[in-house]
């Protein structure tokens, strides 16, 4: 159980700190889920990833937020607007070309002064993680965590309580402690970033590494939550973690002979029909029609206006809004984008799989299928575990999908 943060964190001369959230990237490794919106707006537990970050800051009385936006920036700006409905005051700066997170932070030069926080908009952090960084009362400092796969990140070495080295995405094992991208920095970092950019280095970790000789950076460990989504299957971990801490509310209509076990949130105007069984934690949005005789297993998020027809089972999955799954289907460890349509007997089982992302293959312990928005499946389609199906595809009845499909593929 996470500890509650202490309210009213004021630092460095009683000045309330600003935060810069880096939210300009596309998230290429999450394609096709980022075809029409940035990675930071992908929903987990029916809320965009970016909302969790804003919420964690506001709970620590940090309401002055600068968002660096770029790819599909209108989606972010129309959702958050000026931030008032989230208890924040949000201003936006633009990164026209997504060159790296150091370059993204440099776009906020002149919008912050003194000490400020920097957060990656595509990570989930909770209020406790923010509180722990603030309570260290040291700047510059960086939240660090132990990782089972450090080669994806900037890896740090720590000596005598300070970060002594940073190696970006090392091929050889240096350490299992990584930078999270959540830091407290001083505005002098902009001069360092500028020098790095002039040398062709656009990552924030390059700038942090350059400062180590002149200004130590304190590592901060936390009991709070920090999870990154680098690849599509990471979204399932984020979703499960978010569901564990989600607020539960029950609305809509629940018919007789429905069994609900554990925390299950049901939105307005949703109908849960007779014979349906739901094992929480599960989040179901507004205007859905579930059942009859549907089974929903834990760690599943179902967006708004989703239809799931009889004798279908859904397990540990994300079904985004306006999706419809017809009768006698089975989905496990799947992520379905907005507006996916599946006719009856759609099979998307989860299992150990080798997954192809870009030019790399990854062995994933348990994964179903990742399906882009507005894709349509005919009757009796089987999608093999670890398969990524692009956006806007049309798959004919009886097809078996054994390899990744590009966007707008036709399978007959």
Task: Describe the SSE topology.
Layout: E1 18-23, E2 43-44, E3 47-48, H1 49-58, E4 64-69, H2 73-80, E5 89-94, H3 101-106, E6 115-120, E7 123-125, H4 127-135, E8 141-146, E9 154-159, E10 162-168, E11 177-186, H5 189-198, H6 204-211, E12 218-220, E13 226-228, H7 234-244, E14 253-254, E15 259-261, E16 264-266, E17 271-272, E18 277-279, E19 282-284, E20 289-290, E21 295-296, E22 300-302, E23 307-308, E24 313-315, E25 318-319, E26 324-325, E27 330-332, E28 335-336, E29 341-342, E30 347-348, E31 351-357, E32 360-367, E33 370-371, E34 376-377, E35 382-383, E36 388-389, E37 394-395, E38 400-401, E39 410-411
Parallel strand pairs: 1-4, 1-6, 4-5, 8-12, 14-17, 15-18, 16-19, 17-20, 18-21, 19-22, 20-23, 21-24, 22-25, 23-26, 24-27, 25-28, 26-29, 27-30, 28-33, 29-34, 33-36, 34-37, 35-38, 37-39
Antiparallel strand pairs: 2-3, 6-11, 7-13, 8-11, 9-10, 31-32
Helix pairs in contact: 1-4, 5-6
Give an overview of the whole structure.
With 412 residues, the chain is an alpha/beta fold. It folds into two domains: 18-230, Spore Coat Polysaccharide Biosynthesis Protein SpsA, Chain A; 244-411, 3 Solenoid (UDP N-Acetylglucosamine Acyltransferase, domain 1). 15% of the residues lie in helices and 33% in strands. The protein contains seven helices and 39 strands. The strands form nine sheets. It has a nine-stranded parallel sheet with strand order 14-17-20-23-26-29-34-37-39, with no helix packed on it. Strands 5-4-1-6-11-8-12 form a seven-stranded mixed sheet. A hairpin with a 2-residue loop joins strand 31 (351-357) and strand 32. Helix 1 (49-58) packs across helix 4 and helix 5 (189-198) crosses helix 6 (204-211). The chain is globular, with a radius of gyration of 22 Å. The N and C termini lie far apart (50 Å). Mean pLDDT is 90; it is low at 1-14.
